[in-house]
């Protein structure tokens, strides 16, 4: 039995939901190839289930702290006055994981929102196999 629900192929990407850490998140699986049918995604979905099983609430908390630090430091770059612990903590508390995107090359992108600090924007955080941040993008 899959830990993912409502899986459907749409525009060459499989989408669905997943119950995780007391909430329900959107999930997306992308083979980044044209003409794929839903059966082609079986291996990626299976690998993603193993990844989810290892993605603990402690890991999520650690990632949110690191992401808040990276975003806050970037926002204060070039300012005489630097960020405070309160700035980091405020953003960390506000960050909410809404989606996990899985790609064929084993890349994983976590999508967060922070409605007060980053209104109407998504925060994409690509992480590696060791759950460390590789790249961050806000759009």
Query: Biggest sheet: strands, sense, closure?
Result: 7 strands, mixed
Report the order of strands and helices: EEEHHHEEEE
Radius of gyration: 16 Å
- Termini Cα gap: 35 Å
Report the principal-axis shape: elongated
**How many strand elements?**
7
Q: What percent strand?
A: 25-35%
Tell me the number of structural domains.
1
- Helix percentage range: 25-40%
Arithmetic mean of pLDDT = 94
Structural class: alpha+beta
Concise structural overview:
It comes from Lysobacter firmicutimachus. Strands 1-2-3-4-5-6-7 form a seven-stranded mixed sheet, with helices on one face.
Give short descriptive properties of this protein.
139 residues; alpha+beta; 7-stranded mixed β-sheet; 7 strands; 31% helix; DUF2262 domain-containing protein
Task: Write up what this structure looks like.
It is a single chain. With about 140 residues, the protein is an alpha+beta fold. It has one domain (about 5-139). Helix content is about 30%, strand content about 35%. It has three helices and seven strands; from the N terminus they run E-E-E-H-H-H-E-E-E-E. It has helices at about 40-55, 55-75, 85-95, and strands at about 5-10, 15-20, 25-30, 95-105, 110-115, 125, 135-139. The protein has a seven-stranded mixed beta sheet with strand order 1-2-3-4-5-6-7, covered by helices on one side. It is elongated, with a radius of gyration of 16 Å. The N and C termini lie far apart (about 35 Å). The mean pLDDT is about 95. This is DUF2262 domain-containing protein.
């Amino acid at each position: 039995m899959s830990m993912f629900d409502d899986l459907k192929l749409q525009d060459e990407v499989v989408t669905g939901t997943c119950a995780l850490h007391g909430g329900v998140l959107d999930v997306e699986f992308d083979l980044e190839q044209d003409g794929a049918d839903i059966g082609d995604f079986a291996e990626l979905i299976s690998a993603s289930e193993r990844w989810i099983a290892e993605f603990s609430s402690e890991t999520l908390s650690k990632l949110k702290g690191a992401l808040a630090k990276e975003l806050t430091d970037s926002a204060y770059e070039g300012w005489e006055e630097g960020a405070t612990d309160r700035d980091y903590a405020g953003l960390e508390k506000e960050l909410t994981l809404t989606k996990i995107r899985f790609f064929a090359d084993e890349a994983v992108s976590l999508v967060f929102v922070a409605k007060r600090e980053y209104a109407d924007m998504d925060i994409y955080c690509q992480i590696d196999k060791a759950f460390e941040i590789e790249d961050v993008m806000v759009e």
